[in-house]
Specification:
8 helices, three-stranded antiparallel β-sheet, two-stranded parallel ribbon, mainly alpha
């Protein structure tokens, strides 16, 4: 591969109801997340990471593999110790929707809730790191984080435009650094949440606005 060439990228995969239901278990979501961020693992090494028995992780690995959510690492491992990895392909799945069947909607709720829980735990773990935990980190890594929350008054159209702009920035970074390796390369999580907040009833908002104008 020349320096100008980029690795071949598989087309994004949208999970069908069967694969979504196979993923809909807290431990399977955790295993999928570990393989995505940490890299290839065996049932034994996964057991040590997630705090389960190797028998339990082995069972759930086979269930995930049955729907091609993970796969064995080619040419690695033995008959008694199999290595597993998450295929390097973008995975998309829909959040819970009333248009889904009850079973699929329940699966989507489990998967979405568990991924959000893991994201929150990872953020809290990052915030709890002590200076001693970071003693081997350079100033560049310590200064590289961004945790930001902003409240903006916007219309639906403006919010959609912002969502598209943020998505384009993240997609550009994914494409630029895809397959990158090196001594200073590590997994980085990028979070982008854009959603409207609950608002009071329109009549109540109108009354408050009128009171503000009269005061």
């Amino acid at each position: 591969m020349t320096k100008e060439e980029k690795p071949q990228v598989a087309a994004p995969r949208t999970l069908d109801p069967g694969a979504l239901k196979a993923l809909a278990h807290p431990l399977r979501v955790r295993i999928f997340d570990v393989l995505s961020t940490v890299g290839p693992q065996t049932a034994s090494s996964l057991a040590a990471i997630v705090g389960e028995t190797s028998g339990a992780t082995s069972y759930h690995l086979r269930a995930l593999a049955a729907h091609d959510l993970i796969r064995e690492v080619p040419g690695r491992g033995t008959g008694r110790e199999r290595w597993w990895e998450r295929p390097k392909v973008r995975i998309d799945f829909a959040g819970p929707s009333d248009s889904m069947s009850p079973g699929t909607k329940a699966a989507a709720q489990i998967v979405t809730a568990e991924f959000l829980r893991l994201r929150h735990e990872a953020l809290l773990a990052y915030m709890r790191r002590s200076e001693s935990d970071e003693s081997d980190e350079s100033d560049a890594w310590r200064d590289a984080h961004l945790i930001m929350t902003a409240g903006i008054m916007m219309t639906a159209a403006q919010t959609q435009e912002l969502q598209k702009e943020l998505t384009a920035v993240v997609e550009k970074a994914i494409e630029r650094y895809r397959g990158q390796e090196g001594p200073d390369v590590r997994p980085v999580t990028v979070r982008a949440d854009v959603f409207d907040l609950p608002v009071p009833h329109t009549r109540e908002r109108t009354a408050r606005a009128q009171e503000t104008e009269e005061s």
